[in-house]
Amino acid sequence: MGLEASELQFIWVVRKQNNDDDWLPEGFEKRMEGKGLVIRRWTPQVGGFMTHCGWNSTLEGVCGGVLMVTWPARGPVLMTQVLKIGVSVGTEKWVKREAIEKEMKEMMKGKRAKKARLSMIWMLSLKDSARVAIETYRPK
Q1: Tens digits of per-residue pLDDT, 24-48?
Q2: Which domain holds residue 29?
Q3: pTM recorded for the entire structure
Q4: What is the CATH number of the domain that holds 33?
Q5: Do 99 and 2 form a contact (C-beta atoms < 8 A)?
């Protein structure tokens, strides 16, 4: 509901569980036609994504150069305070849709978005440096 209220265009990648769509708000996909798309399989990240802050998601986001809205099981300190490439909706099990709406808008269009994008450019330069280092290292 928070994603819908944000009025942002989106692709939402979710894992379909047990052929059950009951977790989606009634009529959500119909209301989002032309604005949003729900994909029920793996797909690469686009401009930003909401993450639970697992290490694989963190690496995928950093390597893909996308900004992150964090909703972690543990504190989002790495992405929001150290790397400064994300915003947090909190760490509670259930987050209010207003919090998701606010932080999605902030990350995609807000004042912190420009700073976060600059931080991401720095992260991408590290990614490239790491790739070059791995490619040039040849054990004897």
Answers
A1: 788 888 999 998 888 887 776 667 7
A2: 2-136
A3: 0.57
A4: 3.40.50.2000
A5: yes
